[in-house]
Specification:
By secondary structure, this protein is an alpha/beta fold. It has six helices and five strands. Helix 3 packs parallel to helix 4 and helix 4 packs parallel to helix 5. The longest helix is centred in the C-terminal third of the chain and has 40 residues. It starts with about 35 loop residues before the first helix and ends with a helix.
Length: about 200
């Protein structure tokens, strides 16, 4: 696991699951929370964490080098078991600047101890982590491998050898998806609290 390049405070992890929302929402007559500046403008990438999972040290170093143009915090794992421990540790401590739940996972498939397919399946089956975007970075390109990846729940594929521009473009897209999903969850939770408060007032 590498030393983080950024220790900027991380936003609280929103509830998992559900579809991504739109960044351009407005307050409703029902008393919805106003759209935050982060939702109106682009997200702050320095508040994002990317987890790279690959048993090949050279592949990890290459991905890190390609992602240097992004101000994200980078964490690495040498296999699937270590990746799951990193995620579980972040969840158990509630996250934080030095132990944040990943906002994006770049996942190799062919690894010892636990394959990328299994790692992805576990992430997507857990309500606490299923909203984390997973991009499988692999040399496998057979239709059966792609189908297995889709069945395990991956959000995207990137074929090795990795193209730097393609990696950065797709990573930004998935990070935005994660950001807008959190914004949507925040608004839904606010609406729910407002409705509960109204119900309590009416019954009083």
């Amino acid at each position: 696991m590498t030393t983080p390049r950024s220790t900027a405070p991380m936003p609280a992890t929103g509830p998992a699951g559900g579809a991504a929302g739109s960044p351009g929402g407005t307050a409703t007559s029902g008393g919805a929370a106003p759209v935050s500046a982060a939702a109106k403008d682009d997200m702050d990438l320095s508040r994002c964490t990317i987890l790279i999972v690959d048993d090949n040290a050279q592949n990890v170093e290459l991905l890190q080098a390609y992602l240097e143009s992004l101000p994200c915090r980078i964490v690495t794992a040498a296999d699937g078991v270590q990746a799951m421990r990193i995620i579980e540790s972040a969840l158990s401590t509630g996250g934080g600047p030095d132990n944040a739940v990943p906002d994006l996972i770049l996942l190799d498939i062919m690894m010892p101890k636990m394959s990328g397919f299994e790692v992805c399946r576990r992430i997507k089956e857990d309500p606490a982590t299923r909203a984390i975007p997973v991009m499988m970075v692999t040399a496998l390109n057979e239709l059966g491998d792609i189908e297995r990846g889709v069945e395990s729940g991956t959000d995207d594929f990137l074929t090795k050898p990795v193209n730097k521009l393609e990696l950065i473009t797709r990573a930004k897209s998935l990070l935005r998806l994660r950001h807008y999903k959190r914004e949507l969850d925040r608004h839904i939770a606010y609406e729910h609290d407002v409705e509960q408060s109204r119900g309590s007032d009416q019954s009083a």
